[in-house]
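S1.2 Input.
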Amino acid sequence: VVRTVSGSVWGGPATLVEELAIGALEGPPELTFGFIQSMAVDREGGIFVYDGQVPVIRHYDSDGVFLETIGGEGSGPGEYRNAVLGMGVRRDGRLLIVDARNARLALYNPDGTPSDHWPLASGLFTSQMLSLDEEDHAYVKIVAGRSQQGGMSEIGLLHFDTEGQIIDTVRTPKLSGEPESSGGFFFPSKRWAWSPKRYFVVGIPSDYSFDVRRRNEPLVRVRLDYEPVPLSADQHAAYEARREWMQKTQGQHWAEPIPHTPRVKPAYKGINVGAQGRIWVHRHVPSVLREDVQEPAGPNQAPVVPFREPVVFDVFQPDGTYLGEVPVPARTTLLSFDGDVVWGIRRGDLDEQYVVRLRLHAPEEG
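S1.3 Output.
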């Protein structure tokens, strides 16, 4: 057990400084993004970006200069349809994508030409479906089973070798007290991430703890003392109104009723593991009132929840040492983590999208 009672290695919050932005409100097609679904960073610091609105995959160098378009829309060799739900770059520079609507993985050469494709037997459609390990083996999220009570599905990983042969299915670890239901708002369901070094980081955020589970090694349980975050009375009422609307309009399709909204938020809402093994835990923090709220246009639309939650990550070393917290700039979503460099999407004032690279600056680094 690695427990942090107070303090951190950094001694205070780190900052994320934007050092590159790709995109424009108006301009050529390669700089105007509509709906960025996936991205992957190459070994030279460049980036592949999939825009699902076109749809198209574009490649940019480390300075943000557009290099080439990869493939195009369709179902033939080198083509993909409008759901590329994961991308990764292998050590040899070849790009691997999850072409979900064509039910396959597709591989492209460094020059953008098609290399190979492998069938993918999965009906799962979710974001960030693909992981690559340090030997270029691919792991794709699939439905690995159903709970006995008919609630949430068990998500596992289909393991491919470098030639596209299926090796096995990797199941997420079972935890004591694991909920069978996917729950409603602020329900502490199991959160997990798969490391490029082939191990799980997994936990149930009913408290601030998670496990680092490596095969044939002792389990490491990481605990952080924290102050639970309550929902305000107005926030709780807003989410309960949304829950009741969902139950009324969609409940007939679900195996069980949506649980009532708790009065306290879970400790965290997600886990990511970076390329170098750092663990990024998306922590719940107090919400703030939104200023851009618009009332529903009619009775058939969901009630508005006029709150937003600032994004804050806690960062840990692979051994569980707590480095400190990292507030994320407003309107920015992080998708790729590699040491002190992270990539994500920033939305502009008119909701236009930019691909951004940010660098982490810890307090002792000035």
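S1.4 Remarks. The chain is about 5% helix and 40% strand.
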